[in-house]
User: Fold this.
Amino acid sequence: MSPSRSIADRTLGRYRGRFAPSPTGPLHFGSLVAAVGSYLDARASGGDWLLRIEDVDQPRTLPGAADAILRTLEGFGFEWDGEVLVQSRRLDLYRAALVDRQVSGDVYACACSRREIAANSPPAAVDGGLVYPGICRNGLAAGRTPRAWRMRVADCEIAFDDRVQGHVGQNLERAIGDFVLLRADGQFAYQLAVVVDDAAQGVTEIVRGVDLLESTPRQIWLQQRLGLPTPRYAHLPIVTNAAGEKLSKQTRAAAVDPAAGSAPLAAALDFLGHAVPEDLGRAPLADFWRWAIAAWSIERVPRGRREYRAAPATQGLRP
Assistant:
């Protein structure tokens, strides 16, 4: 485990940030950008930076990827506070939250397949799926067996002020519809797990990629229904390839290599709108972090949701 700063002096109201990668492959440049942004925002505020492995979606988890991510972060000089939280070890907590909302009536059984939902010709949802048309909202039809469990939403706007993107508002009923908390394959949904974990870890600030911006209203709705606090949010621009696709395992994003030293970190900070001195990419890691923490300002981060930057070999990418 990476060396961690002491958290014994934690006080009420202290900044608590986190980085929460999914172990579906090695850490690539897009993930490094999110890690750098969240880390610098926490450290520049004198706060804690927590690390969480989001492996709740077991079918997508790649064996050994979590350990590789931790080694990569440690190799780049990231220091996290406390123990690493692993979602696959916390299923009982997600189940308890689900049962709590089942008892309240907020969550109901759904027997619909994707084909049945599509047959109702619902509009497209903001997350790329289809708005759930409420087929099972008032109970299952006779002879139907539950496949998933859905969270009821209301015809109202969920709004928040994002520190990078500005004011964001979304009507969940129109944009998403009642959304899944427990999938047909028995896996807990990301939306539930992330809300439970952020509250349990006392996270006050979430700095992550703008690809998750449309998920935030669902998470705020869940926080409200579970009686949990809502953190402040900042959604950073994401890195895309030349085709405009988000860097990911699916788009064959190259892994970042700590052997490249400060160069990939300097490139990530430059991507986040900071004018990085030319020689900083060749500086020792300790010098890079010292300069970057002092220079960090989230006001400099560009608002654009997608932005392409070529990543040459000098940035420490490996196939």
Remarks:
- The longest helix spans residues 29-44.
- Residues 1-11, 305-319 have pLDDT under 50 and may be disordered.
- The radius of gyration is 20 Å.
- The chain has nine helices and 14 strands.
